[in-house]
TrEMBL record:
<keyword id="KW-0723">Serine/threonine-protein kinase</keyword>
<keyword id="KW-0547">Nucleotide-binding</keyword>
<dbReference type="InterPro" id="IPR000719">
    <property type="entry name" value="Prot_kinase_dom"/>
</dbReference>
<feature type="domain" description="Protein kinase">
    <location>
        <begin position="16"/>
        <end position="304"/>
    </location>
</feature>
<dbReference type="Pfam" id="PF00069">
    <property type="entry name" value="Pkinase"/>
</dbReference>
<dbReference type="InterPro" id="IPR017441">
    <property type="entry name" value="Protein_kinase_ATP_BS"/>
</dbReference>
<dbReference type="GO" id="GO:0004674">
    <property type="term" value="F:protein serine/threonine kinase activity"/>
</dbReference>
<protein>
    <submittedName>
        <fullName>Serinethreonine-protein kinase-like protein</fullName>
    </submittedName>
</protein>
<keyword id="KW-0067">ATP-binding</keyword>
<dbReference type="InterPro" id="IPR008271">
    <property type="entry name" value="Ser/Thr_kinase_AS"/>
</dbReference>
<dbReference type="InterPro" id="IPR011009">
    <property type="entry name" value="Kinase-like_dom_sf"/>
</dbReference>
<keyword id="KW-0418">Kinase</keyword>
<dbReference type="GO" id="GO:0005524">
    <property type="term" value="F:ATP binding"/>
</dbReference>
<keyword id="KW-0808">Transferase</keyword>
<feature type="binding site">
    <location>
        <position position="45"/>
    </location>
    <ligand>
        <name>ATP</name>
    </ligand>
</feature>
<comment type="similarity">
    <text>Belongs to the protein kinase superfamily.</text>
</comment>
Length: 371
């Protein structure tokens, strides 16, 4: 773990100037820092409220979790820490700088909404981020999966951030250091999360499970596809889960989609598959919710290929049509007044009153129209 001198941190952030503030939450503030070598970093500082009561547990927990993980393309990259020796136990978290804002801003604040392939790509990247956490030994439950905790790098790839509430499952912890902040006993750590995304079955510490994250991911999927806020008191139902699941049960899946974006016919199947996954994730029965491994597998098998090659069926149909025409053309008897087409695959004859020149022009125009 790299430890950066606090004085260098102050210089990098212009003494934590407001002009360098790039993010703010209930647990802390994030500042943009520029080091002497020009490298840009992000520095997370504990919120004033928690500083006053000297509660550094959430930031220490995030440091413990992130520093234990190997680098992953879908999780914010941990760079190091810093300590202010003049203030007891004050720790700063240093992570990679992600310049393109949050998923919440992309869905709700931008004038131009994201395209459907982009939404699918983001959903898959987040599923893989959660898979990475759940497959870690012991398993890590994020507990606060939401659109404001999804950031975009310079290439607009989505990364899951803010692991301040994350916990390792106690049942997986055997030989690890149980004094680590991230190893707090599941039996005493109170349920936490964000209203709207929080699993309603997570009512007491003993209910902690990876399926809590699955519920939150399902809510996020619905938000990604609809661009509707997860809790909106101006609408009925207020909850995005109640609203979307009702429409899906009635077979009105596509009414969930963002009204600002037209749904191309070749994306309908992919979007419906995505919504069905979301419905299973937000099931009231935890046992029926899929694991993140199942979700990633289904997305890779059913969703990625149609999204990656949305025009495949069109091109395939055109190729077959051209082959069929070529076979039929061999049996055509063309005169200046009548063209008689006979094809082994079809019965009967079609009389066409046109010259050879007219036929060729019509074929060219038809091909252009299909293209």
């Amino acid at each position: 773990m790299k430890v950066l001198e606090y004085e260098k941190l102050e210089k990098a952030t212009e003494n934590f100037s407001k002009s360098r503030l790039i993010g703010k939450g209930s647990h802390g503030c994030v500042y943009k820092g520029i080091l002497e070598d020009g490298k840009i970093i992000a520095i997370k500082k504990q919120s004033l409220g928690l500083q006053k009561i000297q509660d550094y547990s959430k930031l220490e927990n995030e440091v413990s979790i992130l520093s234990s993980l190997s680098e992953n393309s879908f999780i914010v990259n941990f760079l190091g820490t810093s300590n202010n020796n003049s203030v007891k136990n004050e720790t700063f978290l240093i992570i990679e700088y992600l310049p393109n804002g949050t998923l919440h801003e992309m869905l709700h604040a931008k004038i131009v909404p994201p395209t459907w392939p982009k939404r699918i790509q983001v959903a898959i990247q987040l599923a893989k981020a959660i898979q990475f956490l759940h497959q870690t030994k012991p398993s890590i439950v994020h507990r606060d999966i939401k659109s404001t905790n999804v950031l975009f790098d310079s290439n607009w790839n989505a990364k899951l951030a803010d692991l301040g509430l994350a916990l390792r499952l106690k049942n997986d912890c055997e030989d690890d250091d149980t004094n680590s902040p991230s190893h707090r006993s599941n039996s005493v750590t109170r349920p936490a999360g964000t209203i709207g995304y929080l699993d309603p079955s997570y009512t007491k510490p003993s209910k902690l499970s990876t399926k809590n994250d699955i519920f939150s991911f399902g809510v996020l999927l619905l938000e990604i596809m609809s661009s509707r806020k997860v809790i909106d008191v101006s609408k009925s139902p207020v909850s995005i889960v109640d609203w979307a699941t009702t429409l899906i049960k009635e077979g009105r899946d596509l009414e969930i989609c963002d009204k600002r974006m037209h749904v191309p016919w070749y994306m309908e199947g992919t979007i419906k598959n995505m919504l069905r996954i979301a419905t299973r994730c937000v099931s009231t029965k935890k046992i029926t919710r899929p694991s993140i491994q199942e979700i990633v597998m289904e997305m890779e098998n059913v969703i990625i290929e149609p999204t990656k090659y949305p025009l495949w069926n069109i091109l395939r149909s055109l190729t077959l049509l051209k082959r069929k025409r070529k076979r039929c053309r061999k049996d055509w008897n063309i005169t200046t007044t009548t063209v008689t087409k006979t094809c082994a695959q079809h019965e009967g004859k079609v009389e066409m009153d046109m010259s050879r020149g007219k036929l060729l022009i019509r074929e060219i125009l038809a091909d252009k129209a299909m293209q």
